[in-house]
Amino acid sequence: MNVLTITGYKPMELGIFNSNDKRIPYIKETIKRRLLPLIEDGIEWILISGQAGVELWAAEVVLELQLEYDIKLAVIPPFTNQEQRWKEDLQLVYQEIVEQADFYEPLVKKEYEGPHQFKIKDKWLIQKSDACLILYEPENEGTPKFFLEEVKRQNKPNFQLFYITSFDLDDTFRDMELNSSNFIE
To answer: What was the pLDDT predicted at 181?
Structure first.
């Protein structure tokens, strides 16, 4: 397994509406905890489409991990200027990630034309990767369900899915809170 796609919810699907939300560090730490064993097992490339939320948070984690690990980040948006309608602070984060990525190239050299571009993106990511790390809960469908539906359609026998669930996020929260507290015994 050499290439891993990371995807998941957009911020608003998690009820996150600003970049200072106190839950983001817990999400990023959970991504890091799930990513480290995969890197140690041989992942060389991380692919994202650069969508806001889990993908950009994962990119920040990967860029941080590049200081210690030999991994590369590729940002492959479905079309050009995908960040065009985002809030300015989010556009800046996206631009910083794109500038630091080891590879960047939109799949389609046009601006947004329709939802078919997202289907093309999902197909491409699945074809080019060996596995996917996805923050997703079946009972809270959201946009990641379209990626998972495409995984089923492509029927790639050795394609692995690694999930991050609310249980993983809760574990990270408890660990981080426990470690940050100064308990007197």
So the answer is: 61
- Any idea where the domains of the chain sit in the sequence? 3-177
Count of residues in the chain: 185
CATH of domain 3-177: 3.40.50.450
pLDDT in tens, 119-143: 999 999 999 999 999 999 989 989 9
59: helix, strand or coil:
helix
Rounded to whole angstroms, the Cα distance separating 114 from 118 reads 8
Tokens 């959970």, residue? 30
What pLDDT does residue 180 have? 74
Q: Which of the four pLDDT bands, split at 50, 70 and 90, describes residue 184? A: very low
Place of tokens 């799930």: 34
Q: Dihedrals φ, ψ of 110, to 5°?
A: -140, 165
- Considering the entire predicted model, what is its pTM? 0.94
CA distance 94 to 89: 9
- Determine contact, residues 6/46, Cβ cutoff 8 Å: yes
Element holding 131 (H helix, E strand): strand 131-135
Distance CA 149, CA 11 (A): 21
